[in-house]
Design brief:
mainly beta, 5-stranded mixed beta sheet, 10 strands
Length: 132
């Protein structure tokens, strides 16, 4: 079952205004479309109801033959943070990603995306964390 939209669309109106004369100079309608990365793994993390943040770990393997640095991001920074935002991972090695989950994560937000990006911010891997 797909629980998120694969494609996100948005329409935005952009106005250029002369602030001295309060005159509209230009107006554009910008249409955007973005495809979400493919989720490579889903982790089910059971959380107990608590008023303090909970820590969990998920694993990540560097698929490259050289050591790489990866930057971690999430779509819900108010619910999930990382012990370390940067990972230096030796070639073909596995490391644990330390997650810190806010007590708010137990509310209606069942899925949180974790993006493992390279240093140029290109998404290398995408995980879904399901709170149970």
């Amino acid at each position: 079952k797909q629980w998120y939209q694969r494609r996100v669309r948005g329409d935005y109106q952009v106005n250029v205004v002369d602030t001295n004369n309060r005159v509209l100079l230009e107006r554009w309608l910008v249409h955007t479309t973005a495809d979400l990365p493919v989720v490579s793994r889903t982790y089910d993390l059971p959380l107990s109801r608590s008023l303090v943040p909970t820590t969990k770990q998920i694993s990540f393997v560097n698929p490259y033959t050289t050591e790489r640095v990866f930057k971690l991001k999430t779509n819900r920074p108010e619910l999930l943070s990382f012990r370390d935002n940067l990972l230096s991972v030796p070639s073909k090695q596995s490391v644990n990603i330390g997650l810190v989950l806010s007590p708010l994560a137990m509310s209606n937000f069942n899925y949180i995306m974790v993006f493992v990006n390279d240093v140029q911010q290109k998404c290398e891997e995408c995980f879904a964390v399901r709170i149970t």
